[in-house]
Amino acid sequence: MTEQYRPGAVERRPYTSTMPAGREPANLGDILERVLDRGVVIAGDIRVNLLDIELLTIKLRLIIASVDTAREMGIDWWEHDPWLTGKDQTLVEENRRLRDRIAALEEGRPRRRSIEPVEAQVEAVEDRQVRRDERDGYRRDERGG
Amino acid sequence: MSATVTEGMSVVADAGTYLYAVARDVDVLCPEGLRGVAGQAVRTIARSGLVAYVSTVPLDQFGEEPLRRSMEDLDWLGETAHAHHRVVEAVAAAAPVAPVRLVTVYSGEEQVRRLLDERHDDFVEMLSRVAGRQEWGVKAYVEKAQTAAQPAAPQEREASRQESSSPGTDYLRRRQASLRTREETWRQAGARAERIHDVLRSVAVASRRHRAQDPELSGRDDWMVLNGAYLVDEERAEEFARALDELRGQGIELELTGPWAPYSFTVLEEGGAR
Fold it and tell me: Has the ipTM of the complex gone over 0.90?
C-alpha cells in the first residue's frame, strides 16, 4: 500500500526521472540544502568536513538564507552575480575571478573571517560561530577523554 | 562489492574514508554496484549493531585544501551532492538511516569504527526515531505578481493625472499605495503559511521550518513563504498528501517533495558524550 512512497522507488529509476503527479522531482537546490545544511555533523577525528571549509559556506549559506532578510538589509548582489545567475562560461570565468578575490582577501585577513559584509550575514556568522564553539568544545572533550 | 575498490588500509597517505550515512545493521547487504562521490564504490563498516556506508576518496580531491577550491565550483558541488544523496537514498530504501553531512572525510576505517562505538547510543536513538517514517518537504510560494508593485489601473491613472499635474506626486502616491498592498499581501501570506504548517504538522510526528530559499536556489521567481520538513509515518503518507491538497489554492502554490531520507530529523548534537 505504502510501497509507492518508499525511497526504494527512487533507487530503481534514474535519479532525475519524473515522479508521480503531485510531487516534484528532487532538484539540485533541494539536495544542496539538505546535504549541506542538515543531517549528522560529526566532529572529532574527522579529517575534513564542511565546518572546516568556511569559504564556500559564505556564498552557499547566503543562497540558502532567507532572501527577504538579505533584501531588507539592502543586500541584493546575487541578482548581478554570475556565479549565482550565470551558466557555463560565465560561471567558469566568475569562479576564477572569485578564487582570485578570495585569495587576495585571505592574504589580508585572518583565515576564518567572512569575506562578505559581515552585517549581511548575522545569521550565517552566528551559525558558524556556534558550530565552531561546539566543535572546539567537542575537540577539547576528545582530548580530555 | 567491486574488486577494484581501493582498500583504505593500503593507501594511507593519499586517500581518505568518506562517510555517507549510518544505519542500523539489519543484515542488509550494501547495494551492489553502488557508486558514491568521485565514482568510487561504496562499502560498509559494521560495528555493534550499526553500519556505516563509506567509500575511499582521493585526498587530492577531498583533502581540505582541494575542497576549498572545488566547493566553489558549482558543477563539481552539484555532482558531488547528487552522488552523496544517491547513496543516502539507496541506504534509506533498505533501513532506517541517518544521513551524514556532505564531505565528511576520515583518515581511515578505524576512526569510523570508533565513531560507531562512541556515538552508538546517539545513533540508535536517532535511528529509532526515524524508523518507519519519511521526510516530506513542503514549500509554499506566493506568486510574485501578487507581491510586486501593482501598476495602477488605467482609469485611476487617468483620474489622478487630472487631479494633479505633477507626475512626481502621482508616482509617489502610486508607490505608497503599492507598498501598502504589498505589505498587506505579505502579512496575509505569512498567516496562511502558519496555518498550512499547523495542519501539516498535525499529520506528522515531527516538523521543522527551514529558512526560505533564495529564488536562485529554488529556481523560481515566486516568493517562498514556507519551507517546511515533516517526518511522517509511512502509513500516513497518503493522508499527508491529501491534507496538503486540501490546502492548495487562494494565491498560494504548494510544492511537495519527497520522500526524503530524514535529513532534517537526524541532526546529531555536537559535543560528544552528554
Answer: no
